[in-house]
């Protein structure tokens, strides 16, 4: 079996070499001729898989993306050609949920928002939205879910209507980019919606840039009473509109899903799809490659005068502080080169459950309960 895989898939060679000839390629360098006699094409979101790229693909049986989103793949064309395709649904849901939690922790600890009273409006209650609701449950933060397709399909959770979602203190977007007619999401946040938001609200986009009408966003941010905005995704990546950056609170170069666990699980899913293609049982698991959860300890966490919630939010920020990514991105001039470079050389970021909190004085019971619920099982030394 001949496999071509995008080099940005971590450990792809370790997972795929056993199938035969597995050869990596740098993002942006794959040509149609490279796909002659290739059986499996494995990509991340930076390779556009369409009729042009597959022009010479004479025996391609599977296209697998190691990402949750698959708007870079022309699935209709693949179906017409009888080529099977898969995505890595949910692989990085926890990572994106923790990214949003890190935003919320920064907002609470800098008095931009009070998480004791705030309500978070979650747009899209799929893998990411559900993971985020689990984190918010752990911290007893209020939230509302919005997901008409799931609601229509009979999901039994309680869903809110659009008007009550855009009235929330935080609105966070977790929908796929859909341009068709069935519940489209392209420009879901347009000038009319933006006009209804105010300076007390926080808008977060960690799904796809095109879900927000960026020109309308820029106009709104230049007008009075504008909401605070956090963006991980942009129109036209990596050549983003840099003039937007001074207007937004936190900006990151599409790394919300880039935890170690999230990226590796993407590769694992591709491996499983290749196993299925050749009718074999997967033998490798994530545990073969990732350190056990309690490998990393956090620095001392003092207790007393602070509320349990603030203590836990500080523990969350010691694991992952999005403001460091924002700083690195802006210091790197946030241009096309910096955008691509930072994504390629992103720091090692393990998820919350890969850490254990070590406290040097007894923690309040409420903080212990929250940390346990986040999988960070604290111990006092
Ligand atoms: N920034 C990142 O690093 C990153 C990482 C992972 C995923 N993503 C993006 O986030 C998206 C969501 O990820 P996921 O894993 O939760 O996907 P998912 O498919 O599990 O969930 C998406 C949910 O959105 C809902 N939805 C679709 N159209 C809607 C609409 N018009 N209004 C409200 N809800 C709608 C769907 O019913 C579904 O439940 C992905 O498609 C991807 O584009 C970005
Ligand atoms: O859809 C996803 O899974 C994420 O957006 C993912 O992080 C994007 O893939 P990448 O560009 O990192 O290959």
UniProtKB/TrEMBL annotation:
Which residues participate directly in catalysis?
Answer: 208, 237, 254
- Localization per record: Cytoplasm
Task: Give Gene Ontology CC terms.
Answer: cytosol
Which reaction does this enzyme catalyse, per its entry? 4-phospho-D-erythronate + NAD(+) = (R)-3-hydroxy-2-oxo-4-phosphooxybutanoate + NADH + H(+)
Q: What InterPro entries does UniProt report for this protein, alphabetically?
A: D-isomer_2-hydroxyacid_DH, D-isomer_DH_NAD-bd, Erythronate-4-P_DHase, Erythronate-4-P_DHase_dimer, NAD(P)-bd_dom_sf, PdxB_dimer_sf
Q: Which domain of life is it from?
A: Bacteria
Q: Where is the D-isomer specific 2-hydroxyacid dehydrogenase NAD-binding domain?
A: 111-256
Which Pfam families does the annotation name?
2-Hacid_dh_C, DUF3410
**Pathway membership, UniProt:** Cofactor biosynthesis; pyridoxine 5'-phosphate biosynthesis; pyridoxine 5'-phosphate from D-erythrose 4-phosphate: step 2/5
Biological processes per GO annotation: pyridoxine biosynthetic process
Its family?
Belongs to the D-isomer specific 2-hydroxyacid dehydrogenase family. PdxB subfamily.
The identity of this protein, by name, is: Erythronate-4-phosphate dehydrogenase
Task: Tell me the classification of the organism that encodes this protein.
Answer: Bacteria, Pseudomonadati, Pseudomonadota, Gammaproteobacteria, Alteromonadales
